[in-house]
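ok so for the tutorial part 2 we go from a plain amino acid sequence to predicted structure tokens. step 1 is just haveing the sequence, like this:
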Amino acid sequence: MQKTERIIGITRKTMVNTVSSISLKNLEADTIFTLTGLAIVLKEEPEEKIKYVGYLQDNEGCIYNTISPSVIKSMEAIMDYMEEEQISEVVTSLKKQRSRNGRDFLYLTI
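step 2 — the prediction. this is what the tokens look like for a chain of 110 residues:
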């Protein structure tokens, strides 16, 4: 079950199509895309802990997904920016970095 927490620029139809979305972790570092929609949803699954899932839509209609807390934090900042600037799209770059403990993590920049 999914409960929408925050959404900007994504239609209900797009949310239905998130089932075929592409994981951001499968993209190359420094991938650049123009985002036209973002959604953060709370996903509750039986026998799984509650987690947030982020969905991103680009200007070509591709839908991406993530459960990365650092990407979701970036998404919240981008959503704030889009609302404050009253814009409907923003050029974004996917970044990958290695943490001190050796794990890779993702984040977005504009």
